[in-house]
Amino acid sequence: MQRANDNSQWQLGLVLLVAFITRIAWWIGHVTAIENEGAEYARLAMNLRDGVGYVGMLGGEQVLFPPLYPKLIALFSLFVGDPETAGRLVSLVAGLALVFAIYRIAREIFGNSVALIGAILAALHPLLVGLSVTVYSESLSAALISLGLYATIRMIRQPSFGRSTVVGLLFGVAYLARPEGLVFATIAAAFVAIAAIRQRQPAQIAVRHIVTLLLATAIMGSPYVTFLSVGSGTLLFEGKTQVNAVVNDRLRAGMSYPEAARGLGPNMELDGPYLVADQFELLQHRRTDPLEFLSPIMSNPYAKVRSLVYDVATSRPLGLPFVGLLFAIGLTALRWWRTSLVEGGLCLAFLGLQISTLLLLEFRFERYLFPILPLLLPWAAAGIERLSYVASRLAQRFVSGARARHAISIAIGVGLIVQLQLIAFPATVVELDESRDVHLRHAGNWIKENFDHPNPTIATNGTVVPYYAHGTLHYLPFAPAPLALRYLHTIRPNFVVVVSSDKRQAPYIADWLQRGIPDRCAVPATVVRGPDGEVVNVWRWSCADANTDATAS
Known about the structure:
It is found in: Cell membrane. One of its GO terms (biological process) is lipopolysaccharide biosynthetic process. Residues 66-219 form the Glycosyltransferase RgtA/B/C/D-like domain. GO terms for molecular function: pentosyltransferase activity. This protein has helices spanning 2-30, 36-49, 68-80, 83-110, 112-124, 126-131, 138-157, 161-175, 181-198, 203-232, 240-252, 257-262, 279-285, 295-298, 301-313, 322-333, 341-356, 373-395, 402-431, 438-450, 464-468, 481-491, 509-515, 546-552, and strands at 457-460, 472-475, 495-499, 522-529, 535-541. By secondary structure, it is mainly alpha-helical. It folds into 2 domains: 2-232 and 299-431, no CATH class; 437-552, D-Maltodextrin-Binding Protein, domain 2 (3-Layer(aba) Sandwich), CATH 3.40.190. It has a 5-stranded mixed beta sheet with strand order 2-1-3-5-4, with helices on both faces. α5 (112-124) crosses α18 (373-395) and α9 runs antiparallel to α17 (341-356). The model is unreliable at 546-553 (pLDDT under 50).
């Protein structure tokens, strides 16, 4: 038994080493610039580190993103200096922790063989490799949720107050990276109760375990809840739902996403929530019904479910539908329900929550599907193990010798893993292509080097250029061109930046790219061309004060 444990630990260590090498290779080969959302995280971290506060790219307080990831970036940046590098290092450590967590989850439910396959899948899946070196929070949140899931399984099998505390703390920390952590804690508590009933634990002890779990989660999350509630003037557990509710309502009114998010009213009203710099101000003045977040699923639920199922089933970055087939085989071919019914049910409940939360949005980007993948992998690994086993049994009819049959089994398993990589890799490269937008980095650096004062104000449609320019972002509004120009005269930016890939972001973008900005204040400054033909046009806004602005108008 000891030898088997030693072998499994050695194998896990080797897989973790491979995972580390593949992620470093991706970093070197595929990363040249920070991602659009990553710039927001890095700026939050920079401002936290420098004592400015929880202030993002827009220059106001931020409520959309929970604080754990920016705080970890700020901590790592004390050692490496650059917040972008620090963010990638945090994601890298989290990505390796995710490999470990998937190994442990699969081992608890299916055994050592499936655990090793699951770890290999997590180590080599292109999407998880790529996410592990982005400045996105998905790698961190997936690792914390998976570690919380593993800790809950251990708690179910060997209940103790220490384990229930660890589970609660893990989900409390997960909440600080992703708000669903609170719901995961509730699901974990429910399954702890189910396990206690099945194991006929004394009710008093079971209740104490559950209360300990939930209390630990509440203690860990309470400072952030206090921050949101004090700033907004009402009890809030997270801020993103409130902003999404505004966007959802505008989408249901027939607007496109750019108009719903950044629409400017006819009298210069900041109707789109992303035009508001201080998001606490948005929450204070735009109250929504507490149950309004259910509106997307309540309106035409059948169509919403059908659309979501299709999107999940055809997500190439996740490796679907191939991973889905392996998942189905693992779910049905191994009789896990005989030995791990509660534990397996817990895993499936977590998966169901990750998928069902996507029904609460009127809009859905491919990235929103990424958290589903880690919860699919233990079952996909079980599917690979079953197919390999069936192949070895069939080989008995044609091949003599245990070693030969074992080699066939391994070859089948390796082939299935390679097939998954071939499916997911091209789509992952496309989906994570923001990491390769080096021309946006060059444009931001040009502004920083050619502007005499710190913190230039930049009107554009993304965060990357303002991030590298060390500037403040104002989103270009979705509005008719004359109204957009009035808006620019109101905010008086130092620069206006328009990227050729943003033509659909506002009605006037294509015309400005072709003919320039029709305003005396807009002075062409530079043009930066990307390797794929994308063009970044930079104008200096020459109207430095209100008097000049009025003259130019």
